[in-house]
Design brief:
mainly alpha, flat
Length: 88
């Protein structure tokens, strides 16, 4: 467990996880396309925040590795949206 005033990296990861779980639940019940996109964007931001915090917890923090992971995530999202929407 953690409290909102706990600023440790572990607490931050827990808070990000909780926020992501809440967003995922909201996404399940939302039928409005615009709202689904907004919630999806917030989930992506949470994932990137979790990457940032998690890599700082590692003994050897590598900005290059973090950048590579985030770029990979963005590439997967772009591919998905391109396939989903049929836009090239």
């Amino acid at each position: 467990t953690t409290t909102l005033d706990d600023s440790s990296n572990e607490a931050l990861l827990c808070q990000i996880d909780w926020r992501s779980e809440c967003l995922q639940e909201r996404l399940k019940f939302t039928r409005c396309v615009n709202e689904r996109m907004r919630i999806s964007e917030l989930l992506i931001v949470s994932l990137i925040e979790a990457y940032e915090v998690a890599t700082q917890c590692m003994g050897t923090f590598s900005v290059a590795k973090l950048n590579q992971r985030i770029n990979g995530l963005c590439s997967m999202i772009s591919d998905y949206l391109r396939n989903f929407s049929g836009i090239s």
